[in-house]
Specification:
Blueprint: H1 21-24, E1 41-46, E2 54-60, E3 66-73, E4 89-91, E5 97-102, E6 107-114, E7 117-125, E8 131-137, E9 140-146, E10 154-161, E11 167-169, E12 175-176, E13 184-189, E14 195-200, E15 205-211, E16 217-224, E17 230-235, E18 241-245, E19 255-261, E20 268-276, E21 282-287, E22 293-298, E23 303-309, E24 316-318, E25 326-327, E26 331-338, E27 342-349, E28 352-360, E29 366-375, E30 380-384
Antiparallel strand pairs: 1-2, 1-30, 2-3, 4-5, 5-6, 6-7, 8-9, 9-10, 10-11, 10-12, 13-14, 14-15, 15-16, 17-18, 18-19, 19-20, 21-22, 22-23, 23-24, 23-25, 26-27, 27-28, 28-29
Length: about 375
């Protein structure tokens, strides 16, 4: 049976940061998701608007339904168009802090998540140009700056996470990618926090950095991707890295690869190289908390491809022969899971963007929960709690 995501209330714009309950209309406090997949929580995205970036908030009920709950200004600017990224919106410690990129103003925003909604507590420079992706490890955050797209240099820069989640630049922490303009897509930490991974779309390379206890990254160690156009990725619970591959965008020609990461050297070994999605432009990846299933969103096909992930080897097996595990309607541009039960996908269509929800069955198959809209076509990033 298909369930509908309920629409209640309207979007509220121009909210002053720090004024939460009355203007945003969150109403009664929602429960924290924490370890209970069925608990209520929230889904977040960014408008990425050039005239003022905003955090879009949806309340999530225990059946996966979403209710628009308002917009909170980030204090920065978006670009007004897609960023070709994953990880522009990430949680900090115990999901009480939310970090966002302002790609149009070269800054980051820090939100504290209270029981009655998010509060903007800091806006800080990203340490470079065009921030697109964020990675958090305990008390360290790294930002991937795609400066090469705007006449500067692609790089990563580090920050210390201080009390209440505020950021302080980590001196002399900036590190290069393989070259100055490589079309980076995502930066993210391994589960143990000892390795930082960055994908490069234009060069078919994956960079890894060893990160010490002091938060400083060394590298990059530059490695060839198993397939063309490595894009989004996620580590599963068992520590295997699953990477989507757009393969340049040919019809039906995208794939996903899994890798084993050597925790001592930062080197990657392909386990399942380029397992086809049989769909077009696989760009984003989300995995279930138990590590059993991984999903790619296929921008050119408007679909989701599910894979089972072998717990002992990390090998990928497509759940559906045709690669269609779910249909998103619009062009999917980001994805996130909550526990083992729900998958949410950000899609772009002719009239704007929306968030599409799916129930994840025990066998990894998906049941549509419908969609909720109201976001501009420039929307970017997806985070779920």
């Amino acid at each position: 049976m298909t369930l509908s995501i309920r629409l209640r209330g309207r979007w509220l714009a121009g909210v002053t940061a720090g004024i939460l309950v009355g203007l945003l209309g969150f109403g009664a406090p929602w429960a924290w998701a924490d370890d209970d997949d069925e608990a209520r929580g929230a889904v977040y995205s960014l408008t990425n608007a050039a005239d003022g970036n905003q955090l879009a908030v949806f309340q999530r009920d225990d059946q996966g339904g979403l209710t628009p709950a308002g917009l909170v200004p980030t204090g920065g600017l978006g670009t007004g168009s897609g960023l070709g990224n994953q990880g522009g919106l990430v949680f900090g410690r115990r999901e009480r802090t939310l970090y966002a990129v302002n790609a149009g103003s070269d800054s980051l925003s820090v939100f504290r998540i209270h029981r009655d909604g998010p509060e903007l507590i800091q806006v800080i420079g990203s340490g470079g140009r065009r921030p697109i992706s964020l990675a958090v490890r305990h008390d360290v955050l790294y930002v991937l700056n795609a400066g090469g797209a705007v006449g500067d240099t692609d790089q990563i820069s580090g920050f210390e996470i201080e009390e209440h989640g505020r950021l302080e630049p980590l001196p002399n922490s900036t590190r290069p990618l393989s070259a100055a303009n490589v079309g980076p897509a995502q930066g993210g930490f391994s589960p143990d926090g000892a390795t930082l991974v960055v994908t490069e779309k234009a060069t078919n390379l994956i960079d890894t950095y060893r990160v010490g206890r002091d938060g400083y990254a060394s590298g990059p160690i530059v490695q060839m991707s198993a397939g063309m156009t490595p894009f989004g990725f996620a580590f599963n619970k068992q520590g295997y890295l699953i990477v989507s591959e757009a393969h340049g965008g040919p019809a039906g020609g995208s794939a996903a690869s899994s890798y084993r990461l050597d925790p001592d050297t930062g080197m990657l070994t392909a386990v399942s190289p380029s397992v086809p999605t049989n769909q077009t432009a696989a760009c984003w990846v989300a995995v279930t908390r138990n590590g059993e299933f991984a999903y790619t969103t296929n921008t050119g096909s408007g679909t989701v491809t599910g894979y089972s992930v072998a717990p002992q080897t990390g090998a990928l097996s497509r759940l559906n022969a045709d690669g269609i595990t779910g249909v998103t309607g619009g062009a999917p541009i980001d994805a996130a899971t909550i526990g083992n039960r729900f998958l949410y996908v950000l899609t772009v269509g002719s009239t704007g963007s929306q968030v599409v929800g799916f129930l994840i069955n025990p066998d990894g198959s998906l049941v549509s929960l419908g969609a909720v809209g109201g976001l501009p076509a420039s929307a970017d990033g997806l985070a779920v709690q």
